[in-house]
Amino acid sequence: MADNADTVDRLRQVDLFSSLSGRQLKHLASVGQVLRHDPGYDVVIEGHGGVGFHLILSGEATVQVGGAARPALGPGEYFGEISVLDGHPRSATVTAGDAGLETFSLSAWQFAALLEKNPEMAMPIITGLCARLRAVEAAAAR
Known about the structure:
The chain is an alpha+beta fold. The protein has a single domain, classed as Jelly Rolls (Sandwich). Helices cover 38% and strands 32% of the residues. Strands 1, 2, 3, 4, 5 and 6 form a six-stranded antiparallel β-sheet that branches. It starts with a helix and ends with a helix. 32% of the residues are buried.
């Protein structure tokens, strides 16, 4: 479990969770765990089932969608939020970079249980997800 103040601070910076209260963030941090991924390890694979949300704590990850490279991800960025919410296959392959990757990770069943027990957390998370979707749409329109 990852329930330290540093994890709470990092979660507070994530747009999906930025509207959550300090108590809610602390609860979220206590449910997930910190995972270390070796260099070259595929953390998620496009088209495969997804069971987790991952917030990058350290290291870098490469991203491929349909075989095309996308911008790399680094500390403070995250992936897996769509599959953890809708249960559909992954939309990208994310691979740990040369130095490996450390993530705060939350499984789909942990996330679902958290929202079931704390439904007041759902609307701020949905609002954050909508903001992210709008940003992606605006970037695509450029």
